[in-house]
Amino acid sequence: MQNNFLFLRGKMRRLPPVHLATLRAIVEHLARIAANCEKTKMDSKNLAIIFGGFIFGEDDVPKTVDLLSIQNWKVC
Question: How far apart are the first and last CA of the chain?
C-alpha cells in the first residue's frame, strides 16, 4: 500500500497547480457522492472503479488503491 501511495503522490506532485486544483475539486465532489451512497448508490469503491482510470490513466492506477482515499493525502 505504501508503494501505491508513493506512486500516486509522485504523479500528483508533477501536476501543474491548476490541474492539481481541478483534481482536488473532482475528488471532493466524488467524496460527497460517496458520503450519500444510500441515495446515490455509489460508494467509494464503485467510484474508484469508474473514475480511477479516467483520472490517473487506466494502466497507472494500482488496483488496490481506493481513489477517494487520496483526498486526505498531502502532495507536498
Answer: 19
